[in-house]
Q: What sequence folds into this?
């Protein structure tokens, strides 16, 4: 079936530029028991600290390395609120270096 009309995105006259700084966080809270019992609270404190104490224009990027459902729900909610500009949800733990490779390759900021 042929396409009808024109793509409305062709007529967008302004695209948002990335902030000059990208702040990146790597999260991993696989479950909420044992060693990771307070993992969600630590994640909340870490993200809250960045939001409360980072001045100037920046984009926040979070790479989640296959965390539990509760941690992912929290991150999605923060993304929906606009606190996180770029959210990666990996379906498996790719390790710290694997996550860094994604973060460094995709961070849009100059710094």
A:
């Amino acid at each position: 079936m042929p396409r009808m009309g024109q793509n409305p995105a062709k007529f967008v006259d302004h695209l948002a530029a990335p902030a000059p700084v990208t702040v990146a966080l790597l999260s991993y809270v696989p479950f909420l028991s044992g060693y990771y019992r307070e993992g969600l609270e630590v994640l909340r404190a870490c993200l809250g600290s960045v939001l409360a104490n980072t001045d100037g224009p920046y984009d926040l990027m979070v790479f989640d390395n296959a965390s539990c459902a509760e941690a992912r729900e929290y991150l999605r909610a923060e993304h929906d609120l606009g606190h996180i500009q770029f959210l990666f949800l990996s379906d498996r733990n790719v390790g710290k270096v694997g996550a860094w490779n994604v973060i460094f390759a995709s961070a849009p900021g100059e710094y």
Remarks:
- The chain has a mean pLDDT of 94.
- The chain is about 35% helix and 15% strand.
- The first helix runs from residue 39 to 53.
